[in-house]
Amino acid sequence: MKNKIVTISLCIFLLLLPKHLLAWNIHGEMTKIVLDSLPWINRYKDITITQYSYADSSIYNSKYRVSYLEGDIGEKTNAKTILSLYADEPDWGMDEGLSLNSAQVLTGGSQGWRHQYFLLFGGFVKLGEAPSRAVHFYNMARLAFEKHDTYWGFRFLARALHYLQDLTMPFHANPGPVFILLRNITDINGLTNMVSNHHFALEDYQEYQVRKRNLLYIKALRRAEPLKVDDVWTTGSYLANKSKDYSERLWELQTKIYGETINSRTRHKINPEKVASGELKNEYDKIIIGCLIDFSAVTKGFLNYARALFRSSN
Ligand SMILES: [Zn+2]
Q: Which domains, from first to last, does the chain contain?
């Protein structure tokens, strides 16, 4: 009975998750910084932009249209530009509004289902499929490179990278401290706002630090050693298992840093410029920088791994 109550309470909580979880702001911008320290990627240039011509077995939002941001079809681009531009692409709506799984409602909808991998109760309950989406686009990249379509090969790799990078964001592997969620379960709207406040505070702060070129953040993205990748799905699962352990501490720190208003039952937007220096900020930065090291490590490691697909295309 007790288990049943906990499960039902958890389900109610999960229904409250923000509907448009993106995980890490500015994937592309951060990917570009990471690739600045990966000189071999510059060898892959003079790549002709080609029309999309694939039968993808997955379903996508029918309103989603493939766009070409770097030029017109037939013009030239390079691997670094493709990877940097399109590491953001999966957040542009392709995964929204779909019926993928009866449990997707527990992750905030189809976008949340595809971009997250919740490991709850110590990993006993798993929700979402971000690692599988990375595998899917890795396989699409293989197909593209096999038919010598270098442009789409790299573009599919950019999409695969997005899902792996998402898994380095702690609130995408563990939405928050269960005891707080259960304690506030009677106020559904209020709890929704509380969870959103924490989620977006982390992303707004991370985006602010990267955009203002905080050297600690930039160095973390540039200098991280590549992760050893032997298998795409296992790598995604490994990242989620690692990042889930930071979410509760981040929640506590954010409550102390931004004040109790972040736990208010109305939407509260933080001002990242106003975070005061001191021990709390140091610990906050340290955890986020640790996550960005994982972001960088998997970006480099995954591209090293994927090199087997495109080495011959140069
Ligand atoms: Zn995402």
A: 2-313 (1.10.575)
